[in-house]
Design a protein that fits this description.
336 residues; Dihydrodipicolinate Reductase, domain 2; eight-stranded mixed beta sheet; seven-stranded mixed beta sheet; globular
């Protein structure tokens, strides 16, 4: 059994991890923390069958207790915890769900996250945990930086096409919409029911922290360009729909065939039937990603549409999928 810990167990992503580990046959949850409820024991959520004991986080206790630790924390906290844990116990495996180790440019990190990254050399060693794209690197990894939800939805349809030189190096526009849980539990005025109900708005266009993350992975796969990324929030608890506009000289059939071939052995990726649009309701509560491509002959643009659950395939589900790959377990363990 893999001795597993969750730091930040009462966060939205921590909650999803707790739910997954109720049915994971290869992992034993031995260490859970919460800054607000440390020292308490209980089920905390109605879906939990067993009590969990929450502790205040201590680096030495975490390292001594676990084979692998999930960090379900804001970037500022995860930034230092990862460094402290890897320094104290180099053999410890870590999956960081924050954005603290997704960028390797100190300038980009300071601009998009608002504080100085003091461990860039560690970020350079971290493996980007987009499971279907970097599966072989993940198998050998000690530190996984779990992808953001928006990058997961946008990159899954684009990367296989880029690897086959089927995307023109210009005019990539990503318009993505997320349920409100993507903003986390911290109270924001624009997250209040009266502000969001029957409402939708864009935010952080051009300045969202997932912009350089998307561009980094596109460049790593052969397309070093800038993208226009515009996220929006919609009045749903969970779910994400991403529309990526791009140009290609290939016919639509070739693009769809390329995706189908690339993902033929990926249990969580489903290429929808011709003409069928991926929908949030079809993936909510699952670790699946539904993808399809459409063509606008009038403008010459293609549209890659993808739908995921932002808390599962966009966060905790993908994190457990990463763990499964790291330990040579069936990727679907705990996730079906």
């Amino acid at each position: 059994m893999i001795k597993t810990g969750i730091v930040g167990a009462l966060s939205y992503t921590g909650r999803e991890l707790l739910k997954i580990f109720e049915k994971h046959s290869q992992a034993e949850l031995v260490y859970c923390t919460s800054e607000s409820s440390g020292g308490k024991t209980g089920t905390f959520f109605p879906f939990l069958r067993n009590n969990i004991h929450l502790q205040k986080y201590q680096t030495q206790n975490a390292a001594a207790s676990c084979d692998l630790i999930f960090l379900a924390l804001p970037p500022g906290a995860a930034h230092d915890y990862v460094y402290e844990l890897t320094t104290l116990k180099p053999e410890l495996k870590i999956i960081d769900l924050s954005g603290a180790y997704r960028l390797i440019s100190p300038e980009d990190f300071s601009f998009y996250y608002g504080f100085e990254h003091r461990h860039i050399s560690l970020a350079e060693k971290a493996v980007y945990g987009l499971c279907e794209i970097y599966r072989e690197k993940i198998r050998k990894a000690q530190l996984i930086t779990n992808p953001g939800c928006y990058p997961t939805a946008a990159l899954l349809p684009l990367v296989p096409l880029i690897r086959k030189n089927l995307v023109e190096p210009k005019d990539i526009i990503i318009d993505a919409k997320s349920g409100i849980s993507g903003k986390g539990k911290k109270l924001h005025e624009d997250s209040l029911f009266c502000e969001l109900n029957e409402n939708s708005c864009s935010y952080k266009t051009g300045t969202h922290q997932h912009t350089p993350e998307i561009e980094r992975i596109l460049a790593d796969n052969g397309l070093g360009i800038k993208v226009l990324f515009s996220p929006s929030v919609i009045p749903l608890s969970r779910g994400m729909l991403s529309n990526s506009y791009f140009r290609s000289r290939a016919p639509l059939e070739k693009l769809i065939e390329t995706l189908a071939s690339f993902y033929k052995n990926s249990p969580f990726i489903k290429i929808r039937e011709a003409g069928r649009y991926p929908a949030i309701l079809d993936v909510a509560g699952t670790n699946q990603a539904h993808i399809n491509i459409f063509e606008d002959e009038r403008t010459g643009f293609f549209l890659a549409v993808s739908a995921i659950d932002n808390l599962l395939k966009g966060a905790s589900g993908q994190a457990v999928q990463n763990m499964n790959i790291m330990y040579g377990i069936n990727e679907t363990e705990g996730l079906l």
